[in-house]
Amino acid sequence: NFVAGVLQFQLYRALCQAAGQRNPEDPRKPLHKCDFYRSPEAGRILGRLMERGSSVPWQDVLFEATGESRLDPSALREYFRPLEDWLRTENLRTNELVGWTYDGDYCKRSIETAGLEVYGSGLYQGYYNSAPRVSGALGNSALLGLLLTLALSSF
């Protein structure tokens, strides 16, 4: 499912580009507002992809549709960039904590043994235990920001 999600956005970007609905140089044509419904060119590309089915390796199909032969999560990041920007701004405005507090030595040994440096994300940076202590539950926008940060940081 993970690979399918990345491929979905990669193909979506290619179809939008073919339909003339996406132009990275034109702020009036962002990826998240693309609608390639009834686009003959996007339809031709999609038809060729469907005809191939599983008869050829997926990398060949991807290259034929997008001109790219490797998975590239940049389309996913491009699609969600407005949400990411809004969350960053909203979290700064409301002083939401993005991340979690570290409450002691739980897992400290495993972190040190693995040689990991755990950084905070968003508003602060540093090693684990550098986050300010916050009482109460995370707000909705902070939780959404955390989930988006975790999902996108794996790319």
Automatic annotation (TrEMBL):
Cited InterPro entries:
Peptidase_M2 (IPR001548)
Is the keyword Electron transport assigned to this protein? no
A GO cellular component annotation in the UniProt record:
plasma membrane
Annotated SUPFAM superfamilies: Metalloproteases ('zincins'), catalytic domain (SSF55486)
A single GO BP term for this record reads: proteolysis
User: Which GO terms of the molecular function aspect are on file?
Assistant: metallopeptidase activity; peptidyl-dipeptidase activity
Pfam families membership:
Peptidase_M2
Glycoprotein is among the record's keywords: yes
Q: Which cysteines are joined by disulfide bonds?
A: 16-34
Report the superkingdom from the record: Eukaryota
What keywords would UniProt list here? Answer: Disulfide bond, Glycoprotein, Signal
Similarity field? Belongs to the peptidase M2 family.
Q: What is this protein called?
A: Angiotensin-converting enzyme
Q: Which organism is it from?
A: Trichomalopsis sarcophagae
